[in-house]
Amino acid sequence: MDVLLDNWSLYGEGLWGTVQLTILASLLALALGVLMAGFRVAPVGSLRTLGTAWVTVLRNTPLTLLFFAVLLGLPRFGLVLPFQTFAILALGCYTSAFICEVVRSGINTVPVGQGEAARSLGMTFTQSLGLVVLPQAFRTVIPPIGSTLIALAKNSAIAGSFSVTELLGVYKPLNEMGYSIVWSFVWIAVGYLIVTLTISALFNVLEKRWGVRR
Amino acid sequence: MTTTATALYDLPGPRTRVRHRWYGIGATAVILGILAWIAYLLFDTGQFEAEKWRPFAYQGIQDLLLEGLANTLKAFGLAAVLSLALGAVLACGRLSEHRPLRWLATLFVEFFRAMPVLVMIFFVFVALKAQPLTALVTGLTLYNGSVLAEVFRTGINSVERGQREAAYSLGMRKTQVMANVLVPQGVRAMLPAVISQLVVALKDTSLGFLITYEEFLQAGKLIATNLDYDLPFIPVVLIISPIYIGLCMLLSWFANWVGKRERRNVKTSAAEVAPAGPSESLSGPTGADRP
């Protein structure tokens, strides 16, 4: 218990770092993921290829390798940004591949008649996708997107090893100060549970509000 | 996919085809432009100079990389076998008829699925002062074992109820029903999802890098930070990532292939074959109540 009370601000900083990473990377992943899902069903061949390549490559990339390449590699090209920004980029791009697949399978659950009705009204591809199909797909993809974002929150732990402030990295100063390692890890675990359970609760609310009633 | 994709737009007529062709050309040009820019950056910062690639011609460096790859595969093999075993045990626990056993297994599975795998690896490494390999394999086993337990359970539950009822009505015992009827069908149905989870395990072996386990990335870092070779960081990334990503892709494709084969198989007609999708979406508390 002492570990937490004595180092309240250290834990707070770590938790805030994890929350920041999670939220910002989630936003990037959602934006990129939906865009790529749109590309994957588009009538233009080269965009479809781009979407497919993006998903296939990023889904099979170990996240540590991506962090390694982005955080240590991009500065060699003269692109120097704060490590946190790099971490958000890596996490967001990685997760966007999973979001893309979730959204695409959501698009596939929308009955074909909806798309047909939309285009019989004379809507273009962008209109029928944006106004008719995606809003309905959104309702079915709430739970799997929640799971993907929880995975993102857990994956953000890797950033700690690349000198970004976040929750797991808290163990290092505590260890040096001579606190019990087991207890400092217990409180780190509790912190992660708080983050993941919050996301889970948030998506349960979203699902209750907008989800498809079965 | 094709049905919905074509439902989103009409079969293009001649004018739309021309328009789409222009869009296609424009998009291709933009994509090629970005690729060319990346290539330019690579050349401009001198990543293809002979000096930076010379080390890879040395026997010692090649051996170092191969050893790293072997260590990665060793960690993967150990983690895969152990997590399959742990998953089977936990699935038995979750499907058990004894309530305390079921609760215990549920608690175990839910806890380790909610924890980042890296926290477990670091805990074993720092708090229990284990060897890097032990820490990596333990962490991967606990996490993937818990996820696989859920996969196995879903597989068993996906077998049609009639199969179980028929087996009981033939006078089979609980264990016989499980071993002779449910498991053979459930495992076949779950095979794609199981292999997909193994892809996750293979990807996560790269976490060993963070606890200084001498795996593939670590070998790459050793070379990349060597001043004698003019810090060949980008060449190292260019060599390591295709091999690593290629290995994962191979395994993913295998999962998809198995999935397609099992869906055609008459032996799985009583159970719904799981898609070989990203098992990422099986993790986390909200994933628990998904079909």
TrEMBL record, chain A:
Cellular location(s): Cell membrane
Pfam families: BPD_transp_1 (PF00528)
InterPro entries per the UniProt record, alphabetical: AA_ABC_transptr_permease_3TM, ArtM/GltK/GlnP/TcyL/YhdX-like, MetI-like, MetI-like_sf
Domain of life according to the entry: Bacteria
Residue ranges constituting the ABC transmembrane type-1 domain according to the UniProt record: 15-203
CDD domains the record matches: TM_PBP2
Ranges annotated as spanning the membrane: 15-39, 51-74, 80-100, 181-206
Membrane topology recorded in Swiss-Prot or TrEMBL: Multi-pass membrane protein
Keywords: Amino-acid transport, Cell membrane, Membrane, Transmembrane, Transmembrane helix, Transport
Family per similarity comment: Belongs to the binding-protein-dependent transport system permease family. HisMQ subfamily.
Protein name per the record: Amino acid ABC transporter permease
UniProtKB/TrEMBL annotation, chain B:
Transmembrane segments: 22-43, 73-92, 104-127, 133-156, 177-200, 233-255
PROSITE patterns noted in UniProt: ABC_TM1
Subcellular location: Cell membrane
Membrane association type: Multi-pass membrane protein
Domain of life: Bacteria
PANTHER family named among the record's database cross-references: AMINO ACID ABC TRANSPORTER PERMEASE, MEMBRANE COMPONENT OF AMINO ACID ABC TRANSPORTER
Family in the record: Belongs to the binding-protein-dependent transport system permease family.
Protein name from the UniProt record: Amino acid ABC transporter permease
Species assigned in the record: Streptomyces pathocidini
